[in-house]
Specification:
Largest sheet of chain A: 7 strands, mixed
Number of strands of chain A: 36
Distance between the termini of chain A: 45 Å
Oligomer: heterodimer
Number of helices of chain A: 26
Radius of gyration of chain A: 32 Å
Strand content of chain B: 25-35%
Shape of chain A: globular
């Protein structure tokens, strides 16, 4: 298959230069599509990832024992057998952690203490309960199976709307409710606007729980120095470094006594690697307890189960509109589900977009209710896009609904409401100060040049043939570099005053020149693969007239030796408006210093000096110059030759903190970010009428991210974000059943799109430089995570004429919406025995089935056998031992399995509701390392041709590991195991009968017969 | 995701392999490509005391052709078979189905016999073998026996293989002159487990249709050409009869409707390339 050519266009050059920017010499690499310096090593397998860093001698390896249940009280943990296992050096539990550390700090003042291991209770499947530390990982995992944890299960709450209902089980009883934060915001006069509206258009949207999953999972190597009580930890932590004080406080040490280091390369992060921080603390404690370095590498199962995710959100949104399409006001109620704990800086996604809640639209009347809800799911955290995808799913779906309600073209509604050209800087209703842009022009360019006409032609041609084709749009404002004060919008203004202001965002970078004239740079970043090494080199070369390979960038963070602030790290697109500016200023300071040194030696004025091709020379007389290295050497070798008053040495650290990032105002307006880019997406999709698969036919993504520092890297970032946006739209979701069981524990069930599933896209740019940043650049790496899910959803809504578009848009879900009654339903529909409907509610945990066996023995004999423990022991598949607990109540050790999969379980079985020789209820449960199951079924006996027919139906709920990783086969497996029981029972009693079995199983073999 | 301890046995000959199986019996698992087994070991889904790795048994690495079939040895990888130059003429359906098995990388290690021995209800190769009426050759220290595909695969991940037996080869009947075949699969992503897979063979007087992914093993139905006029009713009844499993990606109803909607195009494909 030949891929279409990449169509990335510079749509038009900017009309004005950014401020503070010199004319750039043509030799400067800044703004050019320079290939990434990082890629040679990465593509040759020579990356230096966290797991590749040599571990210190004597390093032990850790394995985390995790909760198999979603909610329960820990009654007892017995570590004796694990500790006795050869090679095990320590087993830590919640009690150890409580004794040695403090709970993590959280912005929200609520009694939600979280330690790094569960204390007293577990609150989600996968919650760490114990840590086994051993000589190697294999031993640690073997011993992990020997840690005995006794739980008293509690009812779990999964759905956020159920969680706020009266009488719901409480995730944190001390909070008194599962809704732990609720704030209401009013800007302008929304009530007045709604009263004046011609129409009110309402919509409810559900944003799913998903991740943008790194290839590399969490890695921590921790050491403890008893001599000064300090910790030294290498971790692939990404920041924000506001989490560093959280870790230090948990470890009960001063900040400088937690030395946190990050590796040279990253196998991806996307926000998820904030959440390694609890494990930094846990491995630190393990190192302290064992006196040895401790290493932990998270595996994929752990990562899927409990690493992190974006929060799921339920949004009720409504617009007051005039009949000409003008939006007068918006109201939204946003309920965000953070799972079982709030981890710093949560609930960030609910507030990070707050100032920009009205998106790309000029709407000054706004009412917002923000609610934070706790459930028995894994804690949510930082994720690429961070609140944007959730916001725009509601807002941009609503715009499509408004157009339908008014009988207008969607584009006309968008154009009518966009922040107008020339309105910048523009203050949005909730306080964001949009720095620059030209939104209408972006829409014109994206839909121009025949692009929209072509989409319409393709749509009309498809519809003429009866196919489902739709067109979708999305216009989003993409913020970059967060205001550190945004989270304080969550607390009332009066409380903010008491706490003291929080605002701003500090960026730091250091440029150093050695005696040979080689430049090295460090900065307040962690490497995550964006190409920062390349762009930093471009910025430095731009200032100093050097070649790319003459600049060495080292972004391994060392919190004891490097510059950083709480804003440090790689997140919220802070590089281009933040660290890049600090690099620019630090390199500028070096340039100024070198210019003064050279001016003295060349006998010219510093203003006449230029830096070109490794030379520092006079602009007016280019022959009068010195090599860069020669001038740099002066600062090291010959302080006396320096201009008067100049300090020797060449090392400059620059700090950058934009004044526009003010704290929230008394009326809760907050400029949540420094720079605001714009994305306008347009796509055409087609839905297969047979399989209900969604195919992206065309996708256009138009960007204005201010000045592009490197168009090649910009394109890579846009493509990457697009893939993840597509994943949100069509593929990725963490699924839980309605009892809190986790269902997506492998990459066969958590579906990350591969290159085969990703269509080619067309990328367009204009550049409206930011007036607030020295380089005019804004972030652009998150935009498509925000725009693509809703753009695709809008296109699907257009294709199918549906209001509620379920995300991810799976074929199964579209089939459920679009398929009518079944022509011939199966004779034995898989339905709950208690007369439930045939279609299982999505998320329902119970697997159901039914069957029958015929036994060549009379009913009384069969009945006696059913109640006979000896017979049961022989009948229960894989039964090793059977204890009679009470009348018709047994405990047994059983080996159960299907094909190669086998596990040992403790089983408990009861026979109740007995009607002699007629019916009974069989119920019970099994637990073991593979997981747990509980179920019940009714048995009915009837005499038939001198024998007995037993018919049964059942309902089984499977949890733990089996449900998380074996979901695809569970339905069949439960059928099989239950059938085995009855077939063994039948064959024991009725070997002589020869009566044909009429089980469900035999229906399959009936396929070989002719149809009726 | 580290396996429990086990004994690793790597025989050089079939005799050594079956001797090991006869010694360890149910405590042993046979590994060929390991593309399924190693993941299951790492997830601790499989608990065994010994792994018998047959990937280097040279006797098992051949594909041989007779007058009636090709016989694929137990160490032959899926890609090795797929790259056989005459495969599309010899067993056209195999050439159509094999590219759907996993990914290129997994096919480099995964074996044809391993897939059939594992008996996953969604797998393409058991479906192909069932539709074509192929055979499975089993050997133990007790002797050799050959089973029809329908007698070999008993259900979900379950086969007629005894604990001491080794699947040494499978036999795919050669395509007959004038026959046509069709294959279609629906999965969430390329290379995923099939939600539904369908294969068809058009013979002179009848169509064979096989359905995978819906029930606990491939279901094969033969439809007389004379009955093709009521194909929709036949397929509707077949779907209802199969019932279907549920998982988070597909309801049973969705699976049944895929069978109803895709059977005809697969049969049409088979008819269009038959003589």
């Amino acid at each position: 298959m030949s891929a279409p050519a990449i169509r990335s266009a510079q749509a038009e050059l900017p009309s004005r230069s950014p401020p503070h920017m010199r004319d750039r010499p043509s030799s400067s690499p800044l703004g050019k599509p320079v290939p990434r310096k990082e890629d040679d090593a990465l593509l040759r397998g020579r990356g230096r990832y966290a797991d590749d860093v040599p571990a210190p001698a004597g390093t032990l390896h850790a394995h985390v024992v995790r909760s198999p249940i979603p909610h329960g009280v820990i009654r007892r943990i017995d570590t004796a057998r694990a500790l006795a296992h050869p090679g095990v050096r320590a087993v830590l539990t919640g009690e150890d952690v409580r004794a040695l550390s403090d709970p993590f700090l959280v912005a929200l003042k609520q009694p939600i203490p979280q330690w790094t291991l569960a204390v007293e209770r577990v609150r989600f499947v996968g919650e760490p309960v114990a840590l086994v530390v051993a000589e190697d990982r294999y031993i640690a995992e073997d011993a992990g199976e020997l840690v005995e944890v006794e739980y008293e299960p509690l009812p779990a709450i999964v759905d956020p709307e159920d969680a706020v209902a009266a009488g719901a089980p409480l995730v944190h009883p001390d909070c008194g409710a599962n809704e732990v934060s609720r704030r209401e915001f009013t800007y302008g006069d929304p009530d007045g606007a709604f009263a004046a509206a011609d129409q009110v258009v309402k919509l409810r949207v559900d944003y799913p729980r998903n991740s943008f999953m790194p290839m590399e999972c969490f890695v921590v190597v921790a050491q403890h120095r008893p001599s000064d009580g300090s910790y030294d930890v290498l971790a692939n932590f990404q920041g924000p470094f506001s989490a560093h004080p959280v870790m230090a406080r948990a470890l009960r040490v001063a900040g400088a006594k937690l030395r946190l280091r990050t590796p040279a390369d990253s196998g991806g992060s996307f926000g998820i690697k904030l959440s390694v921080f609890p494990f930094v603390v846990l491995m630190g404690l393990a190192a302290r307890v064992t006196g040895r370095p401790v290493k932990w590498v998270e595996d994929r199962y752990e990562h899927l189960l409990a690493a992190s995710s974006g929060p799921n959100r339920v949004t009720h949104i409504e617009a007051a509109v005039k009949s000409d399409g003008r939006i007068l006001a918006l109201r939204m109620d946003q309920m965000e589900d953070y799972g079982a704990f709030l981890r710093a800086p949560m609930p960030g996604p609910l507030y990070r977009m707050h100032g920009a809640t009205t998106g790309a639209y000029d709407v000054q009347n706004l009412h917002v209710v923000n609610r934070v809800v706790m459930t028995n799911k894994a804690p949510a955290g930082l994720i690429r896009g961070f609140g944007g995808p959730q916001l725009y799913l509601g807002l941009e779906r609503l715009v499509q609904r408004i157009a339908l309600a008014l009988g207008m073209d969607v584009l006309d509604v968008i154009r009518k409401n966009l922040v107008p050209s020339g309105a910048f800087p523009y203050r949005a209703a909730a306080g964001a100060l949009y720095d620059s842009g030209d939104y209408p022009r972006c829409v014109d360019i994206a839909t121009g040049a025949g692009r929209l006409e072509e989409l319409k032609r393709r749509r009309d041609a498809a519809r003429a043939k009866g196919r489902h084709y739709g067109i979708g749009f999305a216009a989003v404002v993409e913020p970059s570099m967060s205001n550190m004060g945004y989270l304080s919008t969550m607390i009332p203004a009066s409380a903010r005053e008491r706490a003291g202001p929080k605002n701003g965002a500090v960026s730091l970078a250091t440029v150093n020149v050695d005696p040979l004239g080689t430049v090295s740079v460090t900065a307040d970043l962690t490497v995550q693969g964006q190409g920062h090494e390349t762009v930093i080199s471009q910025i430095v070369c731009d200032q100093l007239g050097l070649k790319m390979d003459e600049v060495v960038v080292n972004l391994e963070m060392d919190t004891v030796k490097d510059q950083w602030s709480i804003a440090a790290g790689t997140y919220s697109c802070r590089f281009s408006p933040g660290t890049a500016v600090a690099v620019h200023h630090a390199a500028g300071a070096i340039r100024d210093k070198l210019a003064r040194i050279a001016a003295k030696q060349l006998n010219v004025l510093p203003g006449d000096i230029e830096f070109v091709d490794g030379m520092i020379r006079s602009q007016t007389n280019p022959d009068n110059g010195l090599a860069f290295a020669r001038v740099a050497g002066t600062a090291h070798w010959s302080p006396v030759m320096l201009p008067d008053g100049m300090a020797p040495g060449l090392r400059e650290t620059a700090t950058w903190a934009p004044p526009e990032l003010e704290p929230p105002s008394g009326d809760d307006r907050i400029n949540t970010s420094l720079a605001y880019g714009f994305v306008f997406d347009m796509c055409g999709v087609e839905i297969d009428p047979d399989t209900f698969e969604v195919r992206i036919d065309r996708y256009v993504s138009m960007h204005d991210a201010g000045r592009l520092l490197n168009p090649l890297i910009a394109e890579g970032q846009i493509r990457g974000a697009f893939v993840q946006g597509l994943a949100t739209a069509l593929y990725e979701e963490f699924r839980y059943d309605d009892k809190g069981g986790f269902l997506t524990g492998t990459l066969a069930d958590y579906l990350i799109p591969t290159v085969t599933e990703v269509p080619e896209i067309e990328i367009l740019h204009i550049e409206s430089p930011s007036p607030f940043t020295a380089l005019g650049a804004k972030g652009l790496a998150e935009g498509n995570c925000m725009s693509t899910p809703v753009c695709v959803a809008n296109a699907v809504a257009d294709a199918l004429g549906i209001e509620n578009v379920p995300l991810p848009i799976t074929p199964m879900r579209l089939h459920a919406i679009l398929s009518g009654p079944e022509k011939t339903p199966p004779r034995q529909a898989k339905a709950a025995p208690a007369g439930a409907t045939a279609a299982r509610r999505e998320g329902a945990r119970e697997l159901t089935g039914s069957g029958a066996v015929t036994i060549g023995a009379p009913v009384p004999e069969v009945w006696r056998a059913l109640l006979d423990p000896e017979n049961l022991k022989a009948t229960i598949p894989g039964c090793h031992a059977l204890d009679v607990v009470g009348e018709n109540h047994y405990r047994a050790d059983v080996s159960l399995g299907v094909g190669p999969v086998k596990g040992r379980f403790r089983a408990e079985v009861r026979l109740t509701d007995l009607e002699t020789e007629r019916s009974g209820r069989l119920s019970g449960g099994i637990t073991g390392p593979l997981g747990d199951a509980s179920g019940a079924g009714m048995l009915r006996l009837e005499a038939i041709d001198g024998g007995t027919r037993i018919s049964y139906d059942y309902e089984v709920a499977v949890g733990g590991r089996a449900a998380a990783i074996g979901g695809r086969l569970l339905d069949g497996a439960s059928d099989l195991v239950i059938r085995q029981f009855f077939e063994r029972f039948a064959s024991r009693l009725g070997a002589s009968s020869g009566a044909p079995s009429v089980s469900w199983w035999s229906r399959i073999t009936s396929l070989f017969r002719k149809p009726r | 995701m580290k396996p429990r301890p086990f004994t690793y046995i790597r025989p050089e000959t079939v005799a050594e392999a079956i001797a090991a199986l006869s010694e360890w019996k149910e405590a042993a698992r046979v590994m060929a490509g390991g593309q399924t087994l190693i993941a299951m070991l790492n997830l601790r889904l499989v608990d065994c005391e010994a792994i018998v790795d047959i990937s280097r048994v040279s006797e098992l690495s051949a594909v041989t052709r007779t007058r009636t079939h090709i016989e694929v040895g137990a160490a032959v990888t899926q890609n090795a078979l797929l790259s056989r130059p005459d495969l599309a003429q010899e067993v056209p359906l195999l050439a159509k189905a094999l590219p759907w098995v996993g990914h290129f990388q997994t096919r480099n290690k995964g074996t044809v016999c391993g897939s059939i021995a594992h008996a996953d209800p969604s797998s393409e190769l058991p479906l192909t073998l069932a539709l074509l009426g192929g055979e499975v050759v089993l050997r133990s220290t007790r002797g050799t026996r050959t089973l029809k595909a329908a007698d070999f695969q008993r259900g979900l991940l379950s086969t007629a293989r005894e604990n001491d037996e080794l699947v040494v080869a499978v036999r795919f009947p050669l395509g007959a002159k004038g026959e046509g075949t069709g294959f279609r699969e629906v999965a969430r992503r390329h290379g995923d487990f099939a939600i539904v897979s369908l294969a068809a063979r058009a013979r002179a007087d009848a169509i064979d249709l096989a359905v995978g992914g819906v029930a606990d093993r491939p279901a094969v139905r033969t439809i007389a050409r004379a009955d093709l006029s009521r194909l929709d009713d036949i397929v509707d009844a077949l779907a209802a009869d199969l019932g279907g499993f549920e998982d988070i990606h597909a309801t049973a109803r969705y699976r049944r409707d895929l069978v109803r909607r895709l059977a005809r195009p697969v049969i049409d494909e088979a008819l269009s390339c038959s003589a």
